[in-house]
Amino acid sequence: MNTQRPVRTSLLTVLLLSLATTVLAQEQVHTIEFYSPAVDRTMKYNIVLPPEYESSNERYPVLYLLHGLTQSYTAWGNQGVPDYGEIFDDLIVVMPDGFNSWYINYAESAGGETNNWEDHIVQDVVGHVDGNYRTIARREGRAITGLSMGGYGGLTLGLRNPDMFVSIGSTSGAISYGRDEARRLREGRPPRTGGAIRQRAASQTERNPQGQQFLTAEDADAYDPFVLIHQVSPDQIPHIYLDSGTEDGLIAPAREFAMVLFENDIPFDFMQMPGGHNGTYWTQSVGHIMSIQYEVMRRALGERPSRQPRNR
């Protein structure tokens, strides 16, 4: 009995189905190009719309996902985000480009550049999305998170703009970056320039903003989640989500920040699971991120019970 042909046929079927799924996911991702005054550049972002977007008149909440250092607006699409379109079928997901900027407004730009990267995200990207798509354009309908550098950006931008986002988060976040830079400046060491953020980003000259991120320790403090968390009114602090792989060196500051939240009685979600600082971990974590922040937005919009009714 010849079993090779059926086996080969089955394998071919699996491969074709896999390819079809990949193509479908790619078709769900739309790349948008627009001019951003905050950085005086033509920029791009990827967006995933709900399956019924074109046939409905509904408005939708938006989750903003920030990429990591040396990545771009395409990064999250490679981590499986489009595959969740059928699950979270009434959610818009936006994946903006932030270059290797750490999502901050530079204290000093150089080379004729304009490098207000915080404003690029919270004003220009959000403004363009709200102006061109049927979004729920208020705090209750927005969440932001990111990976690595983007995790730092998600927490920092969220705490600096608590009126804009109801949920903020970090996965494998380099959330001690602002604190480390403040310490560097207080010790009298020279500030880092945009083009020398990390040696591994040196090959991306065009994506390394020119100038200095921080001129003083106080500049860095203003972008330090460990400082910012104490400056936001308790009733204005967004929901906070944190996660990291147990083999990731960046889990230490995540645990430290979680302890700060715990000691100050600030509600948050924290998850750790096996994994390192890599795409394999982020592909596993993104579904959890989206489910948590999606539910927070839906609850804030009054579409979920806020508490269990008492039994009488």
Tell me what you see in this structure.
This protein is α/β, with parallel strands linked by helices and 312 residues long. It has one domain: 3-Layer(aba) Sandwich (Rossmann fold), CATH 3.40.50.1820. 34% of the residues lie in helices and 17% in strands. It is built from eight helices and ten strands. The chain has helices spanning 4-28, 117-132, 149-160, 177-186, 217-221, 225-228, 251-263, 279-300; strands at residues 29-36, 41-48, 62-66, 92-96, 108-109, 142-146, 167-171, 211-212, 239-245, 268-273. The strands form two sheets. Strands 1-2-4-3-6-7-9-10 form an eight-stranded mixed β-sheet, with helices on both faces. It has a two-stranded antiparallel ribbon with strand order 5-8. β6, α3 and β7 (167-171) form a beta-alpha-beta unit. The radius of gyration is 21 Å and the shape is globular. Mean pLDDT is 89; it is low at 3-26 and 194-199.
Termini distance?
69 Å
Query: Which band does the percent of strand residues land in?
Result: 15-25%
Q: Which regions contain 5 or more consecutive residues with pLDDT less than 50?
A: 3-26, 194-199
Q: Return the average pLDDT rounded to an integer.
A: 89
Helix content: 25-40%
Summarize the structure.
The protein is an alpha/beta fold and 312 residues long.
List its traits.
alpha/beta, Rossmann fold, two-stranded antiparallel ribbon, 8 helices, 10 strands, disordered N terminus
Write the SSE topology.
Elements (H helix, E strand, L loop, with lengths): L3 H25 E8 L4 E8 L13 E5 L25 E5 L11 E2 L7 H16 L9 E5 L2 H12 L6 E5 L5 H10 L24 E2 L4 H5 L3 H4 L10 E7 L5 H13 L4 E6 L5 H22 L12
Parallel strand pairs: 3-4, 3-6, 6-7, 7-9, 9-10
Antiparallel strand pairs: 1-2, 2-4, 5-8
